[in-house]
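Hey, I was hoping to borrow your eyes for a little while. I've dropped the whole record in just underneath, so have a look:

——
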Amino acid sequence: MKISEKNICESCGIPMHKLADFGTNKDSTINTEYCHFCYLQGKLVDHGIILEQKIEKNFTMSQKMGMPREEAIISARNPSYTQKMERNEAC
């Protein structure tokens, strides 16, 4: 598996840079689609929660990562926003 700048969690949108950032499949192999906050042992951690709960979870994670409040709110409502911000910073 190649870790690159393009590894973004499909569920919450956070970047995954280190091996420990990635979720795990049922057989304990690394899952490259989801982060360890969202996917463990082959299951989505927050399966069955409503959209508002997912937004709140994403907002909380963004703030823990040090993102300013305004950006965290935007990121929580639109996970692809984080990926766009990283692309702009790389330019």
